[in-house]
Amino acid sequence: MSDRGWYQGDGIGLVDDKGRVSIPAALRQTLSANYPKANGKDGGTVIVGAHQKHRCLVAYDPAYLDILAAQLDSREAAHTAEDGERDYNIKRRAAMGEAVPFDGSGRFIMPAFPRFHAGIGAHAFFYGVLDYIEIWDPKTLIETSDYPDVVKSMAKFYMAERGVTL
Questions:
Q1: Which of 12, 25, 102, 147 has its CA 20 to 30 A from that of 41?
Q2: pTM of this prediction?
Q3: Alpha-carbon distance 86 to 76, whole Å?
Q4: Alpha-carbon distance 119 to 13, whole Å?
Q5: Residues 51, 58: contact at Cβ < 8 Å?
Q6: Apex CA 73: angle with CA 72 and CA 78, to 5°?
Q7: What is the pLDDT of residue 49?
Q8: Which residues contact 133 (CB under 8 A, 6 or more apart)?
Q9: Which strand (E) or helix (H) includes residue 78?
Q10: 8 A C-beta contact, residue 154 and residue 46
Q11: Sign of the CA dihedral with 99 first, then 25, 56, and 133 last
């Protein structure tokens, strides 16, 4: 049994020209609880990288790395060829990630390449999916065919609140 908090919550953030954006409060609280700063101050570290399948980012606390590595080891072992060769792409797809600091208000700078890969422009939609957080360009999310309609509606709702129609 784990004492880890689950990433639940969503929200939209305005991204500045340097890639700075704020993590929504509910998600930020889980990040801080799962990996508190040693000095007890606000803020912390978030690992951000490209999603293994979709054109979005994933974000999680540093303590999740051990869990992720164990899952990938298991998946890699399950996909070993008859000759003993492992599918090295399993870890390659999941290994992208950069640890970046966030301040007490949740502001952090999205790493440049992952942000480019995900096509995130002026707005970032954050969505907690229990183990980690997905960060999407709202338009890309809405155009993704294999994604739940209710989440697409969330992105449309938040953008409409900002006066942007998707």
A1: 12
A2: 0.88
A3: 6
A4: 15
A5: yes
A6: 95
A7: 92
A8: 7, 23, 27, 58, 59, 60, 126, 127
A9: helix 64-78
A10: no
A11: positive
Q: How far apart are CA 4 and CA 58, in angstroms?
A: 17
Position 2 scores a pLDDT of 65
Q: Which amino acid, one-letter code, is at 98?
A: E
* Amino acid 40: pLDDT: 62
Helix H or strand E segment including 20: strand 20-22
> Cα separation of 121 and 124, whole Å?
7
3-class SS of residue 60: strand
Give per-residue burial for 126-139: e unless 16+ CB within 10 Å, then b: bbbeeebbbbbbbb
Q: Which residues of the chain have pLDDT under 70?
A: 1-2, 40-41
Are 109 and 18 in contact by the 8 Å Cβ rule? The answer is yes
- The string of DSSP letters for 79-108 reads T--TTS---THHHHHH---EEEEE-TT-EE
pLDDT of residue 127: 98
The Cα–Cα gap between 64 and 93 comes to 16
Sign of the Cα pseudo-torsion (139, 145, 147, 151, in order)? positive
- The secondary structure of 110-158 as a DSSP string is --HHHHHHHT--SEEEEEE-BSSEEEE-HHHHHH-TTS-HHHHHHHHHH
The pLDDT value recorded for residue 36 is 80
